[in-house]
Design goal:
The chain has 1213 residues and is of the alpha+beta class. Helix content is 28%, strand content 25%. It is built from 24 helices and 54 strands. Helix 12 links the parallel strand 22 and strand 23. The N terminus is likely disordered.
């Protein structure tokens, strides 16, 4: 490739990936050459990047790299990412405010996998912690002065133990920096080599992500430094004056090697792909792009709409990073994803065959993978693939082995399903599942965020992307695909084209008002100066600098900020509202807009070069061969072309296969390929998509998996809309909500896994609404219900149900429902959670079959009257209405998405699969029953009430009876759990026992016959009070079932509901504790278990929003039950109130401890008490209400989990 604007020196652009390293060399003449090497090959070379440079320069082993002939080396690397994933970073010391040693470990208290009873949390990155006696409050007032002498001793002791890397993180340190600066100076004097300070690393509110980011920086920066030095030394002794070694950052900008930090390195390589996609797309006039980068183990997808999309918060390897990064969604579906058949469903991944052994066709004894599907179908032809396989790396792909393996698999599937399938049909089925998975990943970054992708182009890169691009585009309605000549090495190409860039943030937290512009201008000037200084020190030309200023805005009390361009107040507000409406479907003009933070980006454009239109106009396109390829269920005659032998601007119709050096491109039927004179390949859909053949209504294992994923994806999209559009902290931040789809008869089809206590309990609500409204329902209607005796749980959990009608508006074809926990629904106390209620009316407004939307009109006055005219009315009806509108928006999203599915597959097919997915879940539960035996258990509560269960299994019919006879009668207080909660608890336990990714639906309950005594504590009748039944008794039911099964000791068994407020503010928290041990592993400490998984508000946000001060939050050491496997520890949370408030506490296990099993000991009891400002103490038992005054300290200690197995004690002499 010839390039204009000749330069006298070489440039190298390198993407060092996990498996391969791609190198592009641009010669002094401007010619471009590419090279690919294995990233790790220690017998051949030390470093792939350096070896690639040597190879392109044709150097002999003894020759040094001629550094004087190199202009620059620009590199992206996975060194930091691998160190993070493998936990092989630097030994790091965490210095944190006293009382918060465990705060990063506790995090937001959620468990990563909802249905995993053996909870596994990621390992922490720091190796040791020192608690520094210091504290500054939100206003900058010093509460506890830092003692430099004590601090120096603590740091010196750690330094003497070998720590050279330190992360310094103090409460509110992002804003009030004096203490962090003091400790940083002390650390420097002691000799720490890496000092990461939170206000410099991530100067934004939220101690948990800022702390995680600071630790990541301290943990990875030394690793990067060593790698940079390794590269420099490999460049030879002459490199000392060489200043142009640059690295790609996660934000899409280059930085000098000496400035490359751990926090900016995680997406180093993939960010190059985004830049490459944008720069090459611009050249051919494409400015709306979806990036599709498919590799061996995973696929990265991204979105571009005229501006790079970045996210300020990303979770990587269990760590929350708060640093600007390209918004990239990764899904575990790549060429090496392994194929599985589980007896009823086809499954792809998430496990991968990797580079070794690789796919079956690689001749290394690997399993069948997605790549093998394309070999089997004839889309990948071994003749046109490099001969690099087999023991001597000189053989073709092994087609005969692939055929043999697919033949065996087809035989197995035919036997299991009693339907004959061919090997090619099996391969095509697996391929369609992989395509669906990748399309769903793209929906998450586009459709879910309010973008219509039908007028976008799919920019396809990565080794395996070209094989699947047309199929993925068809699933999304995309009609154009762009493949650059360097698509196979586009990340490296993008790194070569990227600007140098620095991005600085500053927390603001001020209302968006006229007077603030001057303040922001001064802050931006300071950030510009910092960014400019950074780039000038990298020897960059100041005259080429460009400045981009962003302001992050959010509504008051919301946690979702959106970036707008810095301009006048009216302009920013308008832009914010337009973006908010596009993303979430609504705006809240009555709410105050808050400036959360500002961001200044300073960039310096790298040298631009134009490629000539270099393809000679060949007389005629040459054909390589014509072969039959299996497409859409039949063999199609397909032409194979070599990309280098295609005439520019000639239209090549699919089916066709285009071979190029780094990848294979498959042009599906209905698509057309055109090679531009610039050597860019553009694929265009020229015919409307035709379904090859109607999908039958009888169960098909391929479609079963696709519908499982489709139904779940719709429910998850509903959840995303609800989370984003809700007003209250409970729904938006604590994520106390659920979304689900139901069949026309009201059976649960798919429930996105949000809050387990809602699982399966919504069906009863839907059936109530059907029973009472079926004759009078209209299109555009929606109904509300929270009645505990008709499928509700407790009154704050309001369920919104929307029927969806057919095209003729005659019949309901399905229902969608959303359930959200409202912050207050009335009742005798703020938060609708009275500790001592005895009648349901004391807990709030009872809603039983109320029409909230009539023929598309939201009945705002009617709901206002309902909530305001009750005996104990709701306290914040505006917020209730805002949350109900968010629930309507989520239901609308669900109906739109499911209607799209119906349009694609037909109503009859969708209805059939609504049944089939339930049958599949039913069979999964029956398999669990096959290995269970009869058992029973009784579990007493603190007040003497009990839950009793006996499980009897019918092995012949593969069913079980779960009999709760013997459970206490209706509770006089509020520990009554409606029967829907009992169903939810049973469903949760059996879903956990299945231990596989099955959808949650009514099928799970079909093999189970539940006997729940009427007028008992778990099947109460009106007007029984129910608040604690939902949050506490539900946990007892789960632990009673697990006790009967005998495999898992009791978890903390309570949600520790901590509800406090006054006329101005209210808050509701559930606090984590210890999980129970099992035969497999010890219990997990400080985590939510079983029927809840709600998020806890970040300590800094809590103190910013409420007049409280969190004094400490720590793991309660040794509170887990002793045993061969110890139970998990609870937590100790101490909060000081700065204003008088009413506190309600509703808990459990304050008298009777969580049980141990098989000789394991019980977990510690929970306890809670108030130390008043006059030093008197008020103790609360299992539940209670207390008035707290200014400066009163509330101490809450949560129970530990039970131990498993008898502890082995060894005698010490």
């Amino acid at each position: 490739m010839t390039i204009t604007n000749e330069r006298p020196k070489w440039q190298f652009w390198i993407d060092r990936g996990g498996t391969f390293t791609d190198i592009i060399g641009r010669s002094p003449k401007g010619d471009i050459s590419t090279h690919k090497l294995l990233s790790e090959n220690s017998t051949q070379y030390k470093d792939a990047a350096i070896q690639g440079i040597r190879d392109l320069l044709c150097l002999k082993d003894e020759e040094d790299i001629p550094i004087d002939q190199i202009d620059s080396i620009k590199m992206g690397t996975t060194v930091a990412t691998n160190a993070l994933l493998e936990r092989k970073g630097e030994n790091t010391l965490l210095a944190i405010s006293s009382g918060f040693a465990d705060i990063l470990r506790i995090g937001y208290q959620q468990r990563p996998k909802l249905f995993s009873l053996d909870i596994k949390l990621p390992d922490m990155l720091y190796s040791n912690i020192v608690e520094i006696e210091e504290r500054i409050d939100i206003n900058g007032k010093i509460i506890k002065k830092l003692d430099p002498i004590k601090t120096k001793k603590l740091l010196k002791d750690a330094f003497d133990q070998g720590f050279k890397s330190i992360a310094i993180v103090f409460m509110h340190g992002y804003r009030h920096q004096s203490h962090e600066k003091q400790v940083s100076t002390i650390a420097k004097k002691i000799g720490f080599e890496q000092i990461s300070v939170s206000h410099r690393v991530s100067p934004l509110m939220k101690i948990i992500p800022r702390g995680d980011t600071t630790v990541v920086d301290a943990y990875l920066s030394p690793i990067l430094r060593r790698y940079v030095n390794q590269v420099k030394s490999a460049l030879g002794p002459a490199q000392k004056g060489f200043e142009k070694l640059m690295f790609m950052q996660s934000n899409g900008g280059l930085t000098d090697a000496n400035y490359f930090q751990g926090k900016d390195a995680i997406l180093s390589g993939p960010a190059g792909g985004v830049v490459g996609m944008v720069k090459t797309g611009e050249k051919v006039g494409l400015d709306k792009l979806i990036g599709f980068d498919m590799g061996g183990t995973s696929t990265d997808v991204c979105h571009f709409n005229g501006e790079y999309e970045r996210t300020l918060e990303t979770k990587v390897a269990g760590v929350i990073l708060r640093s600007p990064m390209m918004l990239i969604n990764t899904v575990a579906a790549g060429g090496g994803s392994i194929l599985h058949f589980d007896g009823s469903r086809y499954r792809v991944g998430p496990d991968s065959a990797g580079a070794y052994p690789g796919p079956a066709c690689y001749r290394n004894g690997g399993p069948l993978t997605v790549t093998d599907c394309n070999v089997m179908l004839g889309k990948l032809n071994p003749e046109f693939f490099p001969k690099i396989f087999g023991p001597n790396a000189n053989q073709n792909l092994d087609l005969s082995l692939v055929k043999k393996k697919f033949t065996a698999l087809a035989k197995e599937i035919s036997l299991e399903t009693m339907k004959t399938v061919t090997p090619s049909a099996v391969a095509e089925g697996f391929l369609s599942i992989a395509v669906e998975s990748m399309a769903n990943a793209i929906k998450k970054i586009s459709v879910q965020r309010g973008y219509d992708v039908s007028n976008y182009a799919l920019s396809c890169f990565g080794g395996a992307g070209g094989q699947h691009a047309c199929l993925v585009a068809d699933r999304l309605g995309i009609k154009k695909i762009h493949l650059h000549p360097y698509a196979g090495v586009l990340s490296a190409y993008g790194i070569g084209l990227a600007e140098s860039r620095t991005i600085n943030d500053l927390a603001v937290e001020l209302p968006l008002e006229k007077g603030v512009i001057n303040h922001l201008s001064k802050s931006f000037t300071k950030l510009h100066f910092d960014g400019k200084e950074d780039l000038v020190s990298q020897n960059l030309n100041e005259n080429l600098f460009q400045y981009t200023d962003r302001v992050y805005l959010r509504y008051q009390d919301s946690d979702t900020s959106l970036a707008v361009k810095f301009e006048n107040v009216e302009g920013m507000k308008l832009c914010f509202e337009n973006t908010h409406r596009a993303r979430f479907g609504f705006i809240s003009p009555e709410k105050l807009v808050i400036i959360e933070s500002i961001q200044a980006e300073v960039s310096c454009q790298s040298e631009q070069f134009e490629s000539n239109k270099i393809i000679p106009n060949k007389i005629k396109t040459k054909l390589l061969t014509t072969q039959d390829v299996f497409i859409n269920g039949k063999l199609e005659e397909t032409i194979f072309y070599n990309r280098n032998e295609i005439k520019p601007n000639e239209k090549l119709s699919g089916p066709a296969v285009i071979i190029e050096p780094t990848s294979t491109i498959i042009v599906e039927p209905g698509w057309e390929a055109t090679l531009k004179e610039s050597n860019d390949l553009i694929l265009t859909r020229t015919q409307k998509i035709k379904r090859a053949s109607a999908i039958g209504t009888s169960v098909d294992p391929i479609m079963l998996e696709i519908f499982n994923n489709l139904f779940m994806n719709v429910a998850e999209q509903m959840g995303m809309v609800l989370e984003n559009t809700a007003s209250s902290v409970n729904i938006k931040e604590r994520l106390d909500f659920s979304c689900a789809l139901f069949s026309p008869t009201g059976n649960l089809v798919a429930n996105a896994p949000h809050v387990p206590v809602h699982l399966g309990s919504m069906s009863e609500c839907i059936k109530t609404i059907i029973r009472e409204n079926s004759a009078a329902m209209n299109p555009g209607d929606a109904f509300l219900i929270n009645a505990p005796y008709n499928g509700g749980t407790h009154l704050p959990d309001i369920t919104l149900i929307k029927p969806v009608f057919d095209d003729n508006n005659e019949n309901v074809i399905f229902y969608v429902a959303t359930r959200g926990h409202h912050a207050d629904i009335g009742g005798t106390v703020p938060g609708s959670a009275p500790a001592n209620s005895t009648h349901v009316k004391e807990e709030g407004v009872l809603i039983d079959n109320f029409t909230i939307v009539s023929k598309g009109v939201f009945l705002e006055n009617e709901i206002y009257n309902l909530l305001s005219l009750a005996e104990f009315p709701a306290r914040n009806i505006k917020q209730n209405i805002a949350d109900l509108k968010a629930q309507v928006a989520a239901a609308e999203k669900g109906s739109q998405e499911l209607i799209k599915v119906i349009k694609h597959y037909g109503l009859e097919v969708v209805h059939a699969y609504m049944g089939h997915v339930q049958d599949n879940a039913e069979e999964s539960v029956r398999r669990v029953l096959d290995v269970l035996s009869d058992s029973s258990f009784t579990y007493k509560m603190d007040d003497g009430h009990q839950v009793v269960v006996s499980i009897s299994v019918d092995k012949v019919n593969r069913t079980a009876t779960i009999d709760f006879t013997g459970t206490s009668n209706q509770h006089p207080g509020n520990y009554n759990a409606p029967s829907s909660i009992c169903y939810a608890a049973v469903l949760y336990v059996f879903r956990c026992l299945v231990d596989d990714e099955i959808p949650l639906n009514d099928g799970c309950l079909k093999p189970l016959n539940l006997i729940i005594p009427k007028r008992s504590m778990i099947n109460p009748q009106y007007p029984a009070a129910v608040f604690s039944g939902n949050v506490e008794t539900s946990q007892y039911i789960v632990d009673t079932l697990l006790g009967a099964l005998g495999e898992f000791a009791a978890s903390q068994g309570t949600m520790n509901n901590f509800i406090w407020g006054n006329d101005k503010v209210q808050n509701y928290e559930t606090i984590c504790g210890g999980s129970g041990a099992s035969i497999n592993q010890p219990g997990c400490s400080a985590v939510h278990t079983h029927m809840t998984n709600s998020k806890l508000t970040d300590p800094e946000v809590l103190e910013w929003r409420f007049p409280v001060q969190l004094e400490s939050f720590s793991i309660r050491k040794n509170s887990g039950g002793k045993g061969l496997n110890m139970g998990g520890d609870g937590v100790d949370r101490r909060m000081r109130f700065l204003e008088p408030m009413t506190v309600n506490l509703i808990a459990g296990h304050r008298k009777i401890p969580p049980y141990g099993l098989s000789g394991g000991e019980s977990g510690a009891l929970g306890e809670n008490y108030v130390i008043h400002s006059d030093e008197s103490v008020t103790r609360l038992g299992t539940k209670g209400q207390v008035e707290v005054g200014e400066n009163d300290l509330f101490i809450l200690k949560t129970p530990g989990g039970g131990g498993f197995g008898k502890a082995i004690y060894t005698k010490h002499n």
